[in-house]
Amino acid sequence: MPGNTKQDQHLTIWYREPYVWLLIAIPLATVIASVITARLALQTDDGLVVDDYYKQGLEINRVLERDRRTEELGIAANLQLNEPQHTFRLFLTGNENFLPPETITLSFLHATRGGFDRKIQVSRTGNYLYQADLPELVKGRWHIQMETGEWRVSQTILIE
Predict the structure, then answer these.
(1) First vs last Cα of the chain: how many Å apart?
(2) Are 147 and 78 contained in the same domain?
(3) Nearest-5° Cα angle at 65, 97 to 110
(4) Fewest CB atoms less than 10 Å from the CB: which of 6, 30, 119, 130?
């Protein structure tokens, strides 16, 4: 019935109905969120999960032994970073049984992103002094491990 205004009021154009937009918005938001998530996943490096958990489990005893050896030798480390010049100085001290090695391994381990980890060999430049160029480090919390085959010293620093 063309002359019935009551029925004409209920017939509206589809894009003026809020429920239609609600039904369109939910899948559209899901597609947009999926694209953003995929982009973040492809652009960031989360680091790899280790394949050989058993072998790493066996290494724990070796690590604990090196920590005990550090305590026996009374080893302490004083790490001084010179960020503007990209260098660092490391002073090692210990008890009378401690002999500083010619080279040590410094591992710069990012607290959350394994892809930023750096490892360098540092030679002794003085009695208990080690100096070298500082590797490029991003801002954040870093765990520094100074180690040889016998002992290991760890510190945490914040790069701003």
Answers:
(1) 75
(2) yes
(3) 105
(4) 6
Structural domain includes residue 48? no
Helix (H) or strand (E) holding 62: helix 53-73
Summarize pLDDT for 125-148 with one digit per residue, the tens: 988 899 999 888 888 899 999 999
Q: Are 146 and 77 in contact (CB under 8 A)?
A: yes
CB-based contact 121:69 (threshold 8 Å): no
Using a cut of 0.90, tell me whether the model's pTM lies above it: no
User: Which residues are CB-contacts of 122 (< 8 A; sequence separation ≥ 6)?
Assistant: 90, 103, 104, 105, 106, 130, 131, 132
60-76: average pLDDT: 87
Domain span at residue 31 reads: 5-43
Q: Do 57 and 131 share a domain, yes or no?
A: yes
Long-range CB contact pairs, 5-14, < 8 A, 24+ = none
Per the document, the length of the chain is 160
- How many domains in the chain? 2
The CA-atom distances, in angstroms, between 14 and each of 11, 74, 154 are 9, 79, 66
